[in-house]
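Why does residue order matter? Because the sequence determines the fold. Keep that principle in mind as you read this record.
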Amino acid sequence: MISRIFPGLELIDRELPRDVKIPNKLWSFVWFFVRQVKWPFIAMFLCGIIANMALASEPWFYGQVSALLLKEIGVVEGKDEIFFSSLAGLCFAYIFVVHVFSRSIFSTMSRINNGTFIPFSMMIRRQLGQYLYGHSYRYFQDDYVGRLAGKVMEMPEAIRMILLNSCAHINYCIMQLIIAFVFFLSLDISFALVLMSYVIGCSFIIWWIIKFIGPASYRAIEDMNIVRGRYIDSISNMFLVKVFSRRRQEDLLIRDNLRQAGQSGRHKSLLGFWQEIFQHCCNASFQIALIFLVIHQFQTDVIEISDVVMILTFGIIVTSNSWWLAMLLLEFVQLMEEVRNSIDTVVQNYEVSDRDDSKIMILERSDLSFSDATFSYPGRPVFDGLNLEIKNGEKVGLVGPSGAGKSTLVQLILRLYDLDGGRISLGGVDISSVTQDSLREHIAVIPQSSELLHRSILDNIRFGSDDASYDDVVQAAKLAYADEFILGLVDKDGKRGYEAEVGERGVKLSGGQRQRIALARAILKDAPILILDEATSALDSESEKLIEKSLASVMEGRTVLAIAHRLSTLQSMDRLIVMDQGRIVEMGSHQELLAQNGLYARLWALQTSGFIGEQIE
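Structure:
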């Protein structure tokens, strides 16, 4: 029962429901996550009120002690016992209420924070990451990877700090103001009016913070995120920076970004400076007005000395706390702007998404068809009414100059993008009517880039099939002619063979080695459709011949779609499709296309004569 009300690490196991969309409005977004821990939050908030009420009673104790001391002056001898017993009672009450009771409540709040709200921030990271994974391929192409990762990592902590500040610090300052107002009103309405005027002045400062400092904070956060993204982009492409001697140029680019971030940061700080000036003036005016009013009311016997002590103590605490409150609100607004910035970046509508009635794809045959397919990138049309049929088990090669649409066609089959019009069918089923994951389960891809995860060789190959055994992984590596070099690998931590880590994106391996790992991964997946995008481009001639033999057995019984630079590697395909400017211009076997003496024949002539045209992909 307790674990259900105050959940701990099990919060991290909570997944984002597939049919639930994260709101993109600030407070709705925050509440979407807070409602998952609403009882701990309510408990924290109530504990904050109780503990802060106890703390706010401190000036009252000072007033009671001063009143007791004043009454003792001139008291007849023999009454000291009553005085000291009363004083001792007040002191014990003060210690219990202000230091024992309130601190115990704060300890409870700390326990809730450590037990629930730290795992809560981890839960947000996971659910936000799940939402991020759902974005289209284009979304990740259009932004800095480091910037996106930073949003997922930092924004949940901002939400946790917002909740903590609301329940504890801001709560305390507001409770102090309320109790001071009630006490002032009980003495004389004039004190309450002075405090009310002060609150109105502070409200102007709060308005200033929200109106001006909030947007300035948003801009400063955005500029720093750009700096972060620039650094990560530069560092992750350090090979290019080194070989092209671009260290100086990269430094100058980052300098320009830092200058912009520094300018927006200075603007925010300048607004904060004026906020401090207003705060100083407001506090000084309140203190002066309160002192003059206390003197006047004391002279007219409206209040007593003990009341003077309590009023002035409340005045000092209120001005100190209002200063603290302004700083807390400034931090609060900055945290909220950080959350808002993350919402604007991450919680966007999906460009490619599963329909509400999407089904799990059950593939009975692996024929592919494009029917009047239309697609364009922003400002650049690619396909306009494309029609193509690929039979079940057919092996097709895609040929054409750069920009012909070969890679785009493959990406559309994988549904990395959605068509603008028309239809793509796999096994007679419209691919937009099934879930993206179930569609891609039936397709194995060997990409041109052959990028690897910063994990072990074993994990990278097993990425093709989670439930594959170690022996299955080794067998796939042998088929890809990767087993021999894998067994000789040793990483910086001394891990060997299949347990050795490959570095970020596999930078510790050669291009050919990465391509063999990618091939082993595709072999292990054992999908009915195989897509080869320059699958052997990074291999030497000897390795290429060996892997072509392996691929021949792997392709047996599968529908294959292959893109290759070297046209000679596609001669064994059942059919070659020649594309140009988003259109299919030729189709047939190698010999048939040569006989047509068209674009394919020209590309073949360029390669066999020893010159690779610039337009060949």
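The first helix runs from residue 2 to 5.
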